[in-house]
Amino acid sequence: MPRVAPTKLRFVPFLLASILLSTLLPVSPVRAACAPEPGPGLQESPPAASAQEAAPASDPPAPQAGDADADSEARAALAAISRLDDADTALALAADGAALYDREAVKLDGYAYCSQAVELAEKGEFRESARAASKALHVALQTGNKDLLGKAYRDLAIAFNYAGQLERAEQFANLALKYPGVNPTQVNGPARKVIGDVRTRQGRYDEAIASYEEARQGSSDRFRPLVEASLANALILSGDLVRARSTLDALAEPQEAKQRAQLQRTRGRLLLAENKPAEALALYQALASAPADGDEDFYRAWALDGMSKSQAALGNDAEAAQSLDQAIDVFDQARSQFRSDEFKMGLFSDLQNVFERAIGMHSKLGQPARAFDISERSRSRALLDAVAGRAELKGDGGKALDAASLQKMLRADEVVVAYHALPDRLMAWVLSSEGVREAAFPAALPRNDLARLVDAYRDALIKLNPNAAAIGDKIGQLLLAPLGVEAGKRVVIVPHGPLHYLPFQALRLDGQYLIERNPISIAPSISIAARLAERTPSVEAQLLAFGNPTIDPNVADPLPGAEREVHELSRQFPGAKLFFKDEANKANFTANAPQSRLVHIAAHATVDTLDPLHSKVLLADENGKPNYLEARDVIGMDLGNVAMIALSACESGLGRVENGDEVLGFTRSFLSAGTSTLLASLWPVSDAATEKLMTTLYAELAGGEQVQDAMRDAQRAVMADPETTHPFYWAPFNLIGNWRLKVAK
Question: Each residue of 54-63: pLDDT tens digit?
Fold first, then answer.
């Protein structure tokens, strides 16, 4: 089977640079094209915000007479962004901006796009903010307007900062500083504050303080108080409480009620750091009883969180747990995530931290069921909030189920293993029809260490490391052995944080891969998976399949193996509706998928790490233009009739871990749209191995096997072939959602 050498992936930025000139953005080949094929002589495959002032939308300054010409300026800017590590956030954004600008019916000046970028970023529309800024970037490059160029980079820095893409935020902030423009305070203050924000979130407090000091000196009178508030928080975190106190005491009281409430939170944080928990408790209690005007629930919840920290510092763990429970209840009522005010004041509050502190507190109090309930509640909350205003979760999945309710739903041979990666340790609960117990791990496994462990194993798998089995043994001893789950039990794994990227089926225990001893599946939330399992126990054998879509060869290679795969699947399902090449397009998907029961897509896919809702399955071009299926398109569909969707493509199960919780991308999109079961991959996949896995899986389903058993048999069938025995070939796909699904004979 054909494959693309690793070097083709490694040098994607050069390909992007050439295509940029014609405003076309290629996508690096995926699925078979990016994976090594089985056989001897295997080669290695590559491993897989702050407030600001927008310039007015009129009277843009013209380039000065002494400046380099526009073409030279554009070339210099392109050379600068080509040095960024990730093409998606540099050259691709410039190309994206050019394409978007060309499609604008009414073309605005670049400063108007900057204003849009600011507004969208503060609403949490990170990708749209970046797109608006990319249009400003395009205009700046076309005209050689250095003033606009600096503001476009500034706005890209802010969008990436809001999105948590710290390295890219810093890169664009540094680019912005090279183009301060006619009013340097509009660029220098916000850009240096972004760098300070990045350093604060990285725990590099001394550097953050230095950046904030520079930002304070380069800011306007209007922007400076926000920088000073961020500086005070960084000083608190660094332990320089004397300077933090003097900085806070010198701050004028904000005019806006919301910012006053935020400032009070900072003062409470300082009191706790000064070991004055009683004073902090009094401050937070007053804040809870008299919240800021507007968004009362939101600010009351943060006051309750501060109360819990104060009570814990006073040794009142039970009271602290009660305050945390109340805070979580209020947050659920508010249905709010982060606010731009958090970034303006440098607080970077994370609702997941509140849930995690509550989990740890109830575990400390010897209440495993309550700790499990809060963990599960945080997952359901993140899922629903991530798609708020875009789609509703189908069925009755609006609330998390507690342990007692889940116990009644589980069968005797079923076990749920729910992990939660806290900053300082890993927690896990084993839930069965008999009860819930908390696992005791031999090592603390802090979240950052766990992430490195997962990355190391994924790297070993993707590079076909011959020692992968030994590594799988060691990780299995760490993560699986303490659970005490019997061989033969059906296991539903609920990952958390970095564990979403871990192929549990490829971990080893007692000399076997987990998939050899237990049928397994994955669930982003067991509450959602359990409801899906009850709602769709079995479906009729009705298959809709798409294979080898026709797309621009400059974008990605053809996939003849995918076409053969779909033909093979159809033999198991008479009457299957098949679409190939030009007909394997988005129009046919949207027209046919909602009425189908089983949907299979064998195609290329790409992951958007900035906004995973823009991740794409590359269905066929229509009318000579790309018309890909994006995750955001899926959210808007009604797929409640679909029992299973298989995304037979590279990395279709990846996305971005939101707030240390769940992966946002196609998985969440399809489940939110109503799909019961999903098959998605964690890394680039091999055509030959994927073809065998999928044909075996569908044959087992057609024979009446439960989908968990069918997946186990399919992975073991690929494993049994000496040429594909390495987990790289058989372990990339996860079974997600309804683990009980059967196809009626």
Answer: 332 333 333 3
